[in-house]
Design brief:
The protein has 104 residues and is of the alpha+beta class. It has a single domain, classed as Aspartate Aminotransferase, domain 1 (Alpha-Beta Complex), CATH 3.90.1150. Strands 1-2-4-3 form a four-stranded antiparallel β-sheet. The longest helix is centred in the first third of the chain and has 18 residues.
């Protein structure tokens, strides 16, 4: 299970970074940095509409100016689940006019 979790985490991070997102760390709880609190709120709401449950964190939970979307990966996720989530991140980022995001 540990190897599967590490592989899932790596797959998510690599696809997200290739698309232009900043994903910090190498652990299964992966922060996707957005830096802007209102953007993180809108982004999380749109992801939910896409069927992806991810939480937006912003001040006072994290330091001001460090807003992010927290994604929690699991060993039971299949690669197609992760790909679907990444594709949703890309669609939402484009809808919200985030610069530097592209489909890898």
């Amino acid at each position: 299970l540990r190897q599967r979790l590490q592989a899932n985490t790596r797959h998510f991070r690599e696809r997200m970074q290739a698309a232009g997102f900043e994903v910090r760390g190498d652990h299964p709880i992966s922060p996707v940095m957005l830096y802007d609190a209102p953007l993180a709120q809108r982004f999380a709401a749109r992801l939910l509409e896409e069927g992806i449950y991810a939480i937006g964190f912003f001040y006072p939970v994290v330091p001001q100016g460090q807003a992010r979307i927290r994604v929690q990966l699991s060993a039971v996720h299949e690669p197609e689940h992760i790909d679907r989530a990444v594709d949703a991140f890309i669609r939402v980022a484009r809808e919200l006019d985030m610069p530097g995001i592209s489909a890898p």
